Amino acid sequence: MSNASATQQAIEEAPLIQVEKAVPMIRWSVEQVLELYNMPFNDLMFKAQTVHREHFDANSLQLSSLLSIKTGACPEDCKYCPQSARYSTGLDAERLMRVNSIVDAAKKAKSNGAGRFCMGAAWRSPKDKDLVVVEEAVRQVKELGLETCATLGMLSEEQALSLKAAGLDYYNHNLDTSEEYYKEVITTRSYEDRLDTLEHVRSAGMNVCSGGIVGMGETRRDRAGLLANLANLPVPPQSVPINNLVQVKGTPFEKVEPVGDFEFIRTIAVARITMPTSYVRLSAGREEMNDQMQALCFMAGANSVFYGEELLTTSNASVDHDKALMTELGLTPAASCEREPQ
User: Fold this and answer.
1) Which of 39, 65, 74, 235 fits a 20 to 30 Å CA distance from 6?
2) Which H or E element spans position 141?
3) Does residue 18 register a pLDDT over 50?
């Protein structure tokens, strides 16, 4: 049987699970994902847009704002990250912000139109005393009417339950890349460590936000492996951020060969097809994309962006420019997109 036939058969025979409506829950092989990548570009875009319209308003865009609430001095060795204490990037380490400062930033994000507020801290895993501060920030940000998300490193079962009790809606923990290429990116935690944290988040009843980074020297097969791993989780992530590597001076990946624009757009399209009910987010690297590339990403099924001038420690497209682009494309901010984890 050809790969094309195998893919079609998998789609036809897949059992149904309930998300917002019955959708095929497919176990994707890397070869089947590669087959999508290798489709003629126009056919891939048409397929992705068709899938997107089956599950979402094609002209609605979810807006998330991201704040670094504790910056730098991270003990991990992620080769893309300027916050690692192992690299000299000129970044000044900062202590955990006070709750009132976090809430003030959330108010500003909401006034600019953001619907979700994400809090990121450069930790391997949070200490319980720091988690108390984060949980209070979560409670107060939710009172503003915003969805809440946090990315704090690895979580224990108890910590995940504690964050859920505080009202956290989403927890972000990216797989970054394929399991095979992972050792070329980070050595201080394993792929299994990341999967364990995602399991703790799911078990606690929070929505999972998990994606990866392209442009770190990986192959197309690695990109396919990342998307297959995400799609094959017990429940695909409710939110899937796709980052285009921002090359930061002083990190080991500062001069890696970037992926081409069309390859990035293909990655968005394949993410949409393999995870039809997930929000697919344009994340880091968007500042370097022209308007036409972003429009093609939205056509390919991206329906979420990080919104605001800074993403943790790297710059992002300006709010004014994003508003102008949304007007040009006829995109409107999405209402609350929180979904009950399955």
Assistant:
1) 235
2) helix 128-143
3) no
Cα separation, 246 vs 288, whole angstroms:
9
| C-alpha–C-alpha distance, residues 277 and 273, integer Å | 9
> Stretch 110-123: mean pLDDT, rounded?
86
What's the rounded Cα separation, in Å, for the pair 323 and 16?
A: 38
Instruction: Tell me which residues are annotated as active site.
Output: 74, 78, 81, 118, 149, 209, 281
d(CA 195, CA 175): 8
pLDDT at position 7 = 38
Reduced to 3 states, what is the DSSP secondary structure of residue 257? coil
Alpha-carbon dihedral of residues 279, 285, 286, 288, nearest 10 degrees?
Answer: -160
Residue of 251, 261, 257, 254 lying closest to 282 (CA atoms): 261
> Cα–Cα distance between 61 and 302 in angstroms, integer?
8
**Cβ count within 10 A of residue 181:** 18
Average pLDDT over residues 160-174: 94
- pLDDT tens digits for range 44-80: 999 999 999 999 999 999 888 888 888 867 878 888 8
